[in-house]
Amino acid sequence: MSESLRRLALVAFPMMAGIACLPLLSPTPANTPCSATCSDLVDTGSLLAEGNQPPDHVLAPDYEIDDLNGRAWRIRDLRGKVVVLNFWALWCEPCRREMPVLQSAQDHYGSYLQVLAASLDDLEMSEKLKRFASKLEITFPVCPGATRRDMALFGLEAGVPQSVIIDRNGGIASILPGELTEKKLDSTIRKVLENDPSEALWRKP
């Protein structure tokens, strides 16, 4: 391996345990624009070392991304719902495996929850993403064209899959690195809802 490739691998390798895929096959150009202002970048570097829980109510960046149908989804417009912002890629096997977990959560929590699947696959992969979503009967928005810079807005490392849990007031409630399980995702969503006194009537079995 050449010295330049060795350095690239060292820089790109995620420092968080449990992240299964690396986006080395989907490089982001240096001039790729942020989907939110770069001043909105959240310093969550210490969160992962502290049980994935923000120390205070840290507002999520006002992130916006278009889905496969061209509809724009903006974090600010989803206030009132718990949001699961999942960064993934079609070439990542653990990412593909967790899609049914995300769909199950969307079905179970209904209007209390909005899953957004922000894919690191570029726009040219849209047709493949549509076929994949159709095969798995995914009903939540699948949004191509996400970048590492988008992930950095939330203080995330470069690996996928990773999920950001945003509460009803737009605050970052939790960061879940690595492949999701139904138990891990469900317990996190329940905790967010139970900590919100305005959601006393949500109680799902």
Explain what this protein looks like in three dimensions.
This protein has a single domain, classed as 3-Layer(aba) Sandwich (Glutaredoxin), CATH 3.40.30.10. It is 27% helix and 16% strand. The chain is built from 5 helices and 7 strands. The chain has helices at 3-12, 93-109, 126-135, 148-153, 182-194, and strands at residues 64-66, 72-74, 82-88, 113-119, 142-143, 162-166, 172-177. A 5-stranded mixed β-sheet has the order 5-4-3-6-7. Helix 3 links the parallel strand 4 and strand 5 (142-143). It is globular and about 40 Å long. The chain starts with a helix and ends in an 11-residue tail after the last helix. 37% of the residues are buried.
Summarize the structure.
The protein has 205 residues and is α/β, with parallel strands linked by helices.
Number of helices: 5
- CATH-wise, what's the superfamily? Glutaredoxin
Strand order of the largest sheet: 5-4-3-6-7
Write down the Rg: 16 Å
Q: Give the total of beta strands.
A: 7
CATH fold group = Glutaredoxin
> Approximately what portion of the residues adopt beta-strand conformation?
15-25%
Architecture (CATH level 2) name = 3-Layer(aba) Sandwich
Count of distinct structural domains: 1
Estimate the mean pLDDT confidence. Answer: 79
Distance between the termini: 54 Å
- How does the helix and strand content classify structurally? alpha/beta
Task: Report the biggest beta sheet as strand number plus sense, adding barrel if it closes.
Answer: 5 strands, mixed
Q: What percent of the residues sit in helical stretches (DSSP H or I)?
A: 25-40%
**Which CATH first-tier class would you pick?**
Alpha Beta
H/E element sequence? HEEEHEHEHEEH
The dominant shape is globular
| Poorly predicted regions | 2-19, 22-51
